[in-house]
Amino acid sequence: MCRVLMPMLHKDLTEKILQAFYVVYNSLGYGFLEKVYENALQLELQEMGLQAVTQQKVIVRYRGQPVGDYIADIIVNDTVVIELKAAVSLQEEHRAQLLNYLKATDKEIGLLLNFGKNLNSNASFTLMTGKSSPQRCSANNSPRMRRIIRFNADKD
Question: Where in the chain are the domains?
Answer without folding.
Answer: 11-150
